[in-house]
Amino acid sequence: MSRISRIEIWQVNLPPKVPRSDAIQSFVTQETPMLRVTCDDGAQGTGYTYTIGTGGSSVVALLADHLAPRLLGREADDIEAIWKDLFFHTHATAVGAITALALAAVDTALWDLRCRRLGLPLWKLAGGAQPRVPVYSTEGGWLQLPVETLVAESVAAKQAGFRGVKIKVGKPHVSEDVARLRAVREAVGPGFEIMVDANQAFTVGEAIRRARHYEPLDLAWFEEPLPAEDLGGHVRLAASTSLPVAVGESIYSLQHFREYLQREACSIVQADVARIGGITPWLKTAHLAESFNLPICPHFLMELHVSLCAAVPNAAWVEYIPQLDGITTSRIAIQDGYAIPPDAPGIGIDWDWPAIERSAVARHDIRI
């Protein structure tokens, strides 16, 4: 029996590779809390989580002060029991972003340790459903880009082999969004997917109006049209448009997804492994979506999501936004427009530990 004897925690801040702005915010920096678990037999596993500019130090404090001490002495393979224990230990702050993000760092570390101990890649251990997943790019679709750049980036993505692009929407008037989207559609042709993302910017009435104008452009989905807490608004929108409505990056519990699916408020599930609380609840969410005959197309974190998408049968897309290159030696493999999950044991990420140590803005070491 292998028990946890040491927890190490870092925070590394990573600048975005390109300027990233959407309808409500700018991606200033990726605050990246990391957690490494070491057992008394020497086995190790590493997990991580993220924010896009605020709250990283709060996640680190929750890990160091409240969650990590409860891991010491625990059997590392009791992943489900540990997740539940930590969730109820933080019940006064759950369900919510900071708690979910902290739980994700722990949970991914435990899954990494289990995979390494068994000599299996995550995508095989968690299901092994498909050897490759289509990939689309978001890196050339940010809202601040002029239409000429938007078109050029979309054409370049198509030429590079991507099977789709995501374009941010939310310009002051719907006509501006339509002009940008129409220019991209004309440039890439009808056989290339275009996703649009409003980042929760609209009221219900405005979302319904914009969806009506977007429909002739044959879009793959309309992402985060409304605030995530507005379940009723999503029900109204989904019933009023032929566009698939996508939600999930700002949903922090399996139960909240259940409510969306039961009320037919979306048709694309975009659970984010960090924001849902880790691999354990992500897999439950993916299978919940499968039970409703819906695809899961996760948000961000491609380095981890490629393995999770390959693990389940209903994953339809991986989102390409590279962000970990500064602290990893591995890179996501893409062939003919498909992301290929890594075959090495673990969650599929090779960490550059010297770079992490050099870049860390916070560090904690907690031992028995």
UniProtKB/TrEMBL annotation:
Gene Ontology molecular-function annotations: hydro-lyase activity; magnesium ion binding
InterPro entries found in the cross-reference section: Enolase-like_C_sf, Enolase-like_N, Enolase_C-like, Mandelate_racemase_C, Mandelate_racemase_N_dom, RHMD-like
Annotated GO biological process: carbohydrate catabolic process
Residues of the Mandelate racemase/muconate lactonizing enzyme C-terminal domain: 147-244
Cofactors that this protein relies on: Mg(2+)
Pfam families attached to this UniProt entry: MR_MLE_C, MR_MLE_N
Keyword terms: Magnesium, Metal-binding
The keyword Magnesium belongs to this UniProt entry's keyword annotation: yes
KW Magnesium (keyword) present: yes
CDD domains the UniProt entry points to: MR_like
Protein name per Swiss-Prot or TrEMBL: Mandelate racemase/muconate lactonizing enzyme family protein
Record lineage: Bacteria, Pseudomonadati, Pseudomonadota, Betaproteobacteria, Burkholderiales
